[in-house]
Design brief:
nine-stranded mixed sheet, 30% strand, 9 strands, 2 helices, 176 residues
């Protein structure tokens, strides 16, 4: 099973949309010798394909529940999800004409693991690495990690950024 893969869009009246489920799996932070704010954050498991790192994930199959897709990812990694898998973030990436389909991503808590927990995964199928927070290319993972560590409400994101709070967006009359 591939943990991350692309599927071509379907030919339909609606623009193509991919629904993804990613797991946020974290490795406890190392104890730094001196105070370093970023060094206090856990590292995050990433799958590496063609030199690009992203969280382990799959595209949701037609008729599949998103929690079942999260369990598919966990099974491929050899880990177990809690019975009540925690949703940490929802992120929408709008379509880019001719470059990428619209994407809706659900980020679930995949728990914590030791640094060597995935050493036995077959390297011909998947390559994984632990990434520091400052090296995460997908901003939604930073928000998901914040949700998990600080026990705050899961954000709804557009292009990795939280939606403006009601009454604080442009054109709402606030501050005019």
């Amino acid at each position: 099973m591939k943990l991350v893969h692309a599927v071509s869009g379907s030919e339909s009246v609606n623009p193509p949309r991919e629904v993804w489920v990613f797991l946020l799996v974290r490795c406890p932070a190392e104890n730094p010798k001196y105070f370093a704010p970023l060094g206090m954050w856990p590292r995050v498991l990433q799958v590496v394909r063609d030199g690009w790192a992203c969280p382990p994930g799959v595209i949701v199959q037609p008729g599949e529940a998103i929690v079942d897709a999260a369990r598919r990812v966990a099974d491929a990694l050899g880990i177990r999800l809690p019975k009540a898998a925690a949703l940490l973030a929802v992120d929408q990436q709008p379509a880019i004409d001719g470059e990428q389909d619209e994407e809706i991503a659900f980020v679930f808590d995949g728990g914590s693991a030791a640094e060597d927990a995935f050493a036995d995964l077959p390297r011909d199928q998947v390559e994984v690495e632990w990434s520091a927070v400052e090296n995460l290319e997908r901003v939604a993972l930073v928000h998901a990690l914040r949700t998990r560590l600080l026990a705050v409400e899961p954000p709804v994101l557009v292009e990795g950024m939280p939606l403006p709070e009601p009454g604080r967006g442009k054109g709402d009359g606030a501050g005019e």
